[in-house]
Amino acid sequence: MVDQKKTTFLVFLFMLLLESTFEQETRSSSTVASTVEKSALLELRSSLGLRSRDWPVKGDPCLNWNGVSCDENGSVSMINISGFRRTRIGNQNPQFSVDSLVNLTRLIVFNASRFSLPGPIPVLFGLSVLTLEVLDLSSCSIIGTIPADLARLSSLTVLDLSKNSINGSIPLSLTSLQNLTVLDLSSNSVTGSIPASIGALAKLQRLNLSSNGLTTSIPPSLGDLSALVDLDLSFNDLSGSVPSELKELRNLKTFVIAGNRLSGSLPPDMFGFLSKLQIVDFRGTGFKGVLPSRLWSLPELKILDLSGNQFSNELPNTTISLDSTVSLLNISGNMFYGNLTLLLRRFQVLDLSRNYFEGKVLDFIPINASLSNNCLQGPMNQRELSVCALFYSEKGLAFDNFGRPEEKTKKPNSPWFSGRNIVIVAAVGGSILVMLLLILLPITVSFCVRRRNRSSSTSTHPRGRHNGVGPLPLDETHTSRGVGLSVNFASLGSTFTYQQLLNATREFGDSNLLKKGKSGDLFKGVLDTGIQIVVKRISLEATKNSEAYLTEMDFFSRFAHPRIVPFLGKCLENTTHKFLVYKYMPNRDLPSSLFYKINSIIDDGLKSLDWITRLKIALGAAEGLSYLHHDCSPPIVHRDVQASSILLDDKFEVRLGSFSKACHQENNDRPRKISRLLSRLSSQSSQENVTGSSAAGTSSLLSQAEGLTRSGGGAMGSSARGSSRGASSRISVKDV
């Protein structure tokens, strides 16, 4: 009985071992590559210097190697080493050594993009690895020419050799790859012409030959690529005109031929059948003449860039396709003319600069649209009257003279000096004189009081630079050319390079110019990180005080407050210009936001800010000045407060700017002159107690706020400027 049990147990154990062995052999035959292919992969791993973390030696290539895939028979079908890194030894002598690929007889995909393979493309790709369908060698540091033997890869659908240093011409044999859907040779040094037989690639959907040195003309056979979706021939040396055969590319979505030396005009029926176009980039190609009207009404258009050409016609006065919104329209640097039309409502970002548009700017034009160097009524930086008049006269058209009536010769019998007009002039002149007297009277009284106080304090406070208002205090860290201003350059914001600011502001172009100022020109810019900035460019030769920028930097190195514009950094490497970088304020300054336009073509009037927002701005400006006068040590006098110095963020919160004239106020314990003056004026009008004087002072401050809301910033600029320059001590309701 015991022997029978032992026999049964041994049989059961044997069956388990047999089953385990069978499963192991089955798993090995279905997942692990053959011995020949595994040896080929190990040899490839060694020649390319791949790391063990990507391709472990003891791991199963089909299961554990990153980027390696096998088919159901265990044969390697895909190798993707895109972005892999070499070992330290592999980086010492990197080479394009992939000879072991000849043993991978079922390889379909080889992707080595962004993996350094210095050297020419091996001929084995066209002689041995004939099963390839995808060959991606982009950004691999490849040199040499394109092998003509690649044409033997009859199953190839994707050939990407972009972003290398390939030279020579495009082999004619490549046009025999009938299954090719993607051909990308961009960003190389390919020369010669585009093969005329390229139209034989019937399945081609994407063709990118940009950023090379291709010459001659665009072959008409491109019109035979009926499946083409993306076409990019930009930044070559192509010449001639655009073939009319390209109108047959009915599936085309991207059409880019910018940066060539093309000529002539576009065929009138060019865009008749290209209804799927989304991106059209013809910038800097040299086209002239009339732009086909069909282009404006393409239903799926997203980006239209025609800048830097010589197109010359009026915009269509139509509302076609207003339901579809185009992200970008750039037609700068052409010769478009006439009035702005409703067609522009379709676009979100507009650059119409350097044309000859006339008339008024419509309400629906975006506030950030670039309109400089035109002949428009209202916007700044327009062309000269003589230039606009000459252009329109050459077209046989009449110019609107910027909306101003033409000057007429005065008639000898002018009724200007009639009795009624003399009475009107006398009344207006008398009113102005009375207003001047009312303005000059308090100024004269203030001057007299200041002079008396100065003479009385001579014995205790000698005259000199430190009596009253003077430059900011010295700091021994760094002194500038005898001026006495100090700035801690290392800790003050970020340090930008001149090239960074050139890229951010489009080389300080007119389209980015916000304002020209005495202390410097302001430009809008966008950093690589997407942050919007304002760059003040200060010319050391044109600015009277070449050290004014140091005053402003010294201020920002000492003080920061929510009511002061954020300072981001500086660029001081240029010898003729200095640059200060601030955070961009979406609502610009007070004059720009006090009256703003709404996107309405029915209501023609200007819409002003509501009363709550105006009061919010007035209080915010007062808070900023209060911080300078009372919380800074020593107190700071702005000396340049005006409407344009009051900046507004996206929520209309006030940020004070323009600190190039700021200075500190010393002798903070001296008598408060303005408080004494206001108290004296108040006591002359009524013999009230201190409470009455405080009410009068508060009423005066509220009147200034009311003036701001009524006059659009002029009262605020005048009142604040007078307070900043004349007040040498802090003023509050208690002082009054």
User: Biggest β-sheet, characterized?
Assistant: 13 strands, mixed
Spatial order of the strands forming the largest sheet? 1-2-3-4-6-8-10-12-14-16-18-20-22
Low-confidence stretches: 20-30, 408-414, 456-485, 599-606, 668-679, 681-736
Let me know the average pLDDT: 78
User: Which structural class should the secondary elements be placed in?
Assistant: alpha/beta
User: Outline, from the CA principal axes?
Assistant: globular
Q: Total helix count? A: 13
Instruction: Tell me the radius of gyration.
Output: 38 Å
Strand segment tally? 37
Proportion in helices: 25-40%
Strand content is 15-25%
First and last CA, distance: 120 Å
Descriptive account of the structure:
- Helix 10 (611-631) crosses helix 12 and helix 12 (690-711) crosses helix 13.
- By secondary structure, the protein is α/β, with parallel strands linked by helices.
- It has a 13-stranded mixed sheet with strand order 1-2-3-4-6-8-10-12-14-16-18-20-22.
- The longest helix is centred in the middle third of the chain and has 38 residues, at 419-456.
- The chain is globular, with a radius of gyration of 38 Å.
- It has 13 helices and 37 strands.
- Among the domains are: 443-471 and 586-736, no CATH class; 473-584, Phosphorylase Kinase, domain 1 (2-Layer Sandwich).
- 26% of the residues lie in helices and 16% in strands.
- Keywords: ATP-binding, Glycoprotein, Leucine-rich repeat, Membrane, Nucleotide-binding, Repeat, Signal, Transmembrane, Transmembrane helix.
- Residues 508-736 form the Protein kinase domain.
- It comes from Arabis alpina (Alpine rock-cress).
- Pfam families: LRR_1, LRR_14, LRRNT_2, PK_Tyr_Ser-Thr.
